[in-house]
User: Which sequence fits this backbone?
């Protein structure tokens, strides 16, 4: 029980996935990046510190209005998928970190994406992130070209995957 409470608070304060140096550097190398569902901007802050260019968006990026965010690490623009994927950003690398499995947000972002790369941080098909339709759409139009192991919470099986358009 204590680890569940500890994980919940760490997720609120930082992010759903635990970053490492290798993952942050790999993402920064794929700049420019549009991050959809950026939360409090923790990954954005790390990627920027590594020299990457990120435009982060979240439907509700304000900690006082979003129970999943305990702190803001970087400025995150308010907006969903449609706003994030405008003004040329649809051609940038798309980054999704732990997109919710109960929402079509990730598959919507993937449909609007016109760029060459997708960075997906989460569990695979049948896991607790993104919908199965997203995973099917990703596999149909992209090829996985990289995978980086991330530190994980007990019982979770998330990692970072880099996909390239076919």
Assistant:
């Amino acid at each position: 029980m204590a680890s569940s409470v500890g994980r919940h608070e760490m997720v609120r304060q930082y992010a759903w996935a635990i970053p490492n140096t290798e993952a942050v550097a790999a993402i920064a190398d794929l700049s420019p990046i549009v991050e959809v569902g950026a939360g409090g901007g923790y990954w954005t802050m790390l990627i920027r510190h590594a020299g990457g260019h990120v435009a982060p968006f979240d439907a509700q990026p304000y900690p006082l209005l979003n129970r999943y965010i305990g702190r803001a690490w970087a400025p995150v623009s308010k907006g969903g998928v449609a706003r994030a994927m405008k003004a040329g950003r649809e051609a940038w690398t798309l980054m999704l970190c732990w997109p919710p499995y109960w929402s079509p947000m990730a598959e919507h972002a993937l449909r609007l994406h016109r760029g060459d790369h997708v960075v997906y941080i989460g569990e695979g098909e049948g896991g607790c992130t993104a919908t199965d339709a997203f995973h099917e759409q990703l596999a149909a139009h992209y090829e996985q070209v990289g995978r980086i192991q991330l530190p994980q919470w007990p019982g979770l099986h998330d990692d970072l995957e880099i996909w390239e358009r076919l």
In short: The longest helix spans residues 2-13. Helices lie at 2-13, 21-28, 42-49, 81-84, 105-112, 132-141.
